[in-house]
Amino acid sequence: MVDETQDSPILSITNALDIHGWNHLDAVLLAALATQSPLLLVGPHGTAKSLLVVKIAHALQYEMRHYNASLLNYDDLVGIPLPDENGEKLHFVATPGSIWDAEFVFFDEISRCRPDLQNKLFPIIHERKVVGIPLHRLRHRWAAMNPPAPDDLDTGSAQGEFYLGSEPLDPALADRFPFVVPVPNWRNLSRDDRRHLITWKDEYILSDRDEIAEATGFTLAQLIDRCQANIPLLEDEVGGWLADYVICVIDLLEQAKLPQSPRRARMLARSILAIHAARMVTEGENADLEYSAQLGLLYGMPQNASEVPPSPATIVATHKQAWEIASLSENDNWRRVLEETDPIKRILVADQLDFADEEFSRLITQALSAEKSDARQVSLATAIFLAYHQRRNLVPAAWEPLSKLAGRVLEPRTVTATVPPGVLANIWKEINEWVDKRPVNGDYVEKLLQNFVFSGFPDLWRNHKWQEELEQFRADLTQFGVKE
User: What global pTM score does this model have?
Assistant: First the structure.
């Protein structure tokens, strides 16, 4: 998810390379180059992944090796192994395509690579070593892959959204890429970008002209140097605060079922600093740390290479919540509330902290809107209404939905129904059998439970199991201290 309100880069590396629609990734690419961090591009075929890498390596005048990992054999990497004169050790006879003198390596189709060979690529990407031997000249290790097919294929999905031959990367290998970048495809391109793409004639021609210097006034190497120079300054300025933000992010991602390794936490902090350093180069004074952190999170998730990548909206929401938390002091009451990830428990924490009614109302409306189940909305609204209607002076934006939803349960009712045979008739029979077993003169909570069940027939119980929702309602009443 790209914030279209953000200013375009003053200096665009991708535009200079005649690759359009990638402006939002300029800082990410420059950050990866400046930190010499492995980067993985994820996207459909024909989206210029390989071309971008070839052009960047050409602009840097680096010795490059471009390997198709789906066809790669280990001998292609290391050359021909031969014993030495004494027959005690092996040495490798380099071939023109071997990796020993490479400065930039690109593993295309890495998700189609054999598992045994993926394991052999691991130390190259992670340690810049092959068979335990350091690759002293190697700087950049980039890779590309198509989105892998999910286990549960939706036959109605758009053609080309997934690839049956593309397998998810081993999680340990994916976790070695600090940058995992979904790339733009046709539907992400503006009309001007599409026009540039269609009329472009030089796809396979690498010019001797320094296109980046002509477009920006700086060579790519100079831009990298400027970015590198910014990083230690930023570490001194915001490193401590950023650590707090990353701690919040990792905890929130865990709650969102996107767990991260301790290594990833360190990577994210480093990547965010590098991205902000890069944006200071490409955008100057327009660069703000909050958006740099958002970019670092969006393009730093190893799950971007999985069968079901995380929703950008989820990542952005996580970022915004973590940013808000980290921006508050440790003893701020709002921080204590926001650190609670469950919207319902936030209400209870805020009540204990004696929040003002207006702030308290905001948490109630957020909790109700976060709950997508209409049956649970009725359950929660009733419990919250009963807990606070005499204790709190809620604002209309909270009071109106509460009273409307709770009214279904709290209004006295006598229910008679004539139900034709079928599913609803079976549900009605179950409800009546349950009622027959209840106490005739039950207590207040018992009457609430019966009213809740009756109030949901027939509309709520068409889509929800009434027994499960009843137990949830009982739990909600207990959670909010509703008794007699």
Answer: 0.80
